[in-house]
Amino acid sequence: MNAKDFEKLITIRKLLKEAYDHYFEFSDGHCKMSEGHISLSFGDYWKDKDCECKIIGVEIYSYVLGPSRGHYFDNLDEALEAVKEWHRNEMTASYDEYGEPQTQGYLENPDAN
User: Fold this and answer.
1) Given this model, what pLDDT does residue 103 score?
2) Count of domains forming the chain
3) Measured between alpha carbons, how far is 34 from 63 in angstroms, rounded to an integer?
4) CA 13 to CA 19: how far, in whole Å?
5) What's the mean pLDDT when you consider all of the chain?
6) Average of per-residue pLDDT across 53-69
7) Coil vs helix vs strand at 79
8) Which one is predicted more confidently, 111 or 34?
9) Domain contains 51
10) 8 lies in which domain range?
11) Nearest-CA neighbor of 28 among 98, 109, 104?
12) Is residue 106 part of a domain?
């Protein structure tokens, strides 16, 4: 893995941590044990014969932040873009006093008058 990839990986980890810290501070805390797990794939013997450790796959488990549990990316750039979006969404999220997420119009009944 080269230095640029390592920096991207550190950025992904820091963004996830900050988003999870926000979530656990303000939400009801519902989550799974594997939250934030990151796996990298470097390929097999034939794809990495020169031991370059080129990343050919990234998996991030995030039941809390992402749209599903397991998220698969072809490279760190794709993973970083997705995590930036998850981070942005979480850092702008608000929760009620019970830790439930609030969305615009959540408590309003448009038919009430």
Assistant:
1) 63
2) 1
3) 8
4) 10
5) 89
6) 94
7) helix
8) 34
9) yes
10) 3-96
11) 98
12) no
